[in-house]
Amino acid sequence: MAFLSVSMERISKTQIKLVKSLQLKKYRDETGLFVAEGEKCVEELRKGFELVHLFINGEADKREAIHVSQTQLEQMSGLRTPQGVIGVFKKSEHSDYSEYSENSDLLLVLDGIQDPGNLGTIIRTCDWFGVRTILCSPDTADCYNPKVVQATMGALARVQVHYLDLPTFLKSTTIPVYGTLLDGRDMYEELRSEGVNELKSKAIIVMGNEGNGISQAVRPFITHPLRIPSYPKDAETSESLNVAIATAIVLAEFRRQG
Question: Cα dihedral angle (175, 176, 179, 182), rounded to 10 degrees?
């Protein structure tokens, strides 16, 4: 491990109870804290969040760490197989998102993404493609859900996630709004078409719910409906793509065209 020295301090029952409680959104909201597991994930999150507690099982060398037994680790962990390191962090104090950053070229909007694994993968994908801001509808999964945090592998330290009323935000923007719809236009043809390259210098990309797609409240604001074509064109295939995979494909094409 890359850790520096283990404290002789013992973990308390109160601390164990606190860490376990952070599996639930109610207590994350009440305390302003969230939990992450695994050395890699914890170390990455330290770059963007304040570390409150660090618990380690086994040999380690971090001065601020509290050594815990395997039993104690299992009591705190939300994983079937605990990874030996648990960190408790303060949630971000980012103010409510009000305007599109002048430093951003792409903004991702998530409308009703409910699966924590999907949200975590999307955040990690945004980190890879340099998308630093995600706007979510209030019914999108909590980005501090331990399953989301685990799936991001630390990318949450570099990607800001905000929750707000999407129709209100989209109504006020003059930026082109792209959205994936089953009845949309072929994405590759649309992004190659004349005039669209100029619009892509700033763009909002909307991805919808796993089962229902983009909501009826948000659809009227889509100025460029896109569809990821299947291959070959007329072959029988699945009804749709997983939303995390679809997001990766769309972002990759925007970056390639840009």
Answer: 160
SS (H, E, C) the chain: CCCCEEECCCCCHHHHHHHHHCCCHHHHHHHCEEEEECHHHHHHHCCCCCEEEEEECCCCECCCEEECCHHHHHHHCCCCCCCCEEEEEECCCCCCCCCCCCCCCEEEEEECCCCHHHHHHHHHHHHHCCCCEEEECCCCCCCCCHHHHHHHCCHHHCCEEEECCHHHHHHCCCCCEEEEEEEEEEHHHHHHCCCHHHHCCCEEEEEEECCCECCCCCHHHCCEEEECCCCCCCCCCCCCCCHHHHHHHHHHHHHHHC
Instruction: Name the more confident of 190 and 87.
Output: 87
pLDDT beyond 60 at 122? yes
Cα–Cα distances (Å) from 7 to 52, 61, 173, 243, 251, in that order, read 14, 9, 52, 43, 44
* pLDDT at residue 234 greater than cutoff 90: no
